[in-house]
Amino acid sequence: MYITIFVVPGLPQLPIDVGLSLWYTFLFVLNRKEYRNYINFPFKSVFILLLTSWSLSSIFSMAGVGRAFTELIKDASLQIIIIWVIWYVVRTKSDYSFLLKGFVILFFFSCLYGIYEYGIKSNPIMEYELAACGSDNMADFSSYENQGRGYRVRSFFVHAIGGATNWSLFVTFLLTLKFKYKISLPFFGLSFITIVLSVACIFFSNSRGPLVFLFICLLCIIDFDMNRLGKKMLYFLIIVILCIPLIKMIPDEFLMNVHSIFDRSGKVDVVGSDEKTRYLQLAASLKLLLLSPIFGLGYKFMDVLSNSTVDNLFGLESIWFRTITYFGLLGVFANLALAYYSIWKIPRHYKSKQASVVAIAYWVVASLTSLPGFHLYLFYLVYFYYIKFPVQQESLIYKRMNLKKNIIKILLIKRYIRKRNFISRNFD
Asked: Quick check: 188 and 230 in contact, CB under 8 A?
């Protein structure tokens, strides 16, 4: 949701997410002594490189430093600073347990509103926000809601794609906690209902990217142990067979959306960007890169540059198209480093397959499409959980706990048998 804290004529509006990020950062700085001895932030060097890239692009921005600076503050607070703070502040399982309870409730209400939105084919809250903020301060994505593929639900989120990706991430996180970590979910009944409603809202969003994200993240749950893989495949086939009657109940517009992921011909029926559009965007991005190869054209360059090449960028439907044009080769190098760290280096260091899988899901989907409305802080919360508490370590703890319980049971049984024998001998 786009809610402004204050509006002052002549000054940029301050969205609530940016304001809260800066406020939490301020509180963190005041209490920084409490976190001095904690593990160093694993993305420190990469985030410094990213911030350097963004800063230099803003200094040499085609739109001018003044215009670019406000966007720099926004991106830095939401994509770097608050994530840095989260690493140090959210440290224990009790911290995650507290946050998870809140997220279950929030996502439950987002699903209820999403289903209501799908029923009335309108989003009153977003319409009110747009009317209050104005199209100059808030992106209007309402034109995409009925663009050839049926109504696209977005609930409280800015865009259907970002909203559905948030639902996908949350669903797979809950399932991973339940089936891999063997953790009891908070408000179990509500959590289960939220999972079901979230999956429904993912389909109601009529977006392909979130489905790809969901399918990849489900690999977090799969155990590739060959000794147990056959049994799990059998369970999977049974579930698929049981779900066939339910699949037939799904409206054709959603099935065509899923079909279009695997079959090019399916995209004829589902209106949206195709390979030709992506190639046009890539060609336009590379052409604009020549204007400022190292630092890019900076934030808001499209406000001052208007030609056919800029028109071919369309919505910059890939993280790489935006990086090439905004931040140049330095930005591309910084993002490649971030992808390497998140997919390979950090998961390998912490021995976490789940962290690697969720990072692959993000980079694949972000490369294939834009993700407006996707909350990076939620992504990193999940990612940090996977590396702070790897499944291998948790499984070992779980086995040790079970072993201790079994040993205690055996000792109690032996004690009971000895007592019974003692009593029977005395009685005799």
From this structure: no
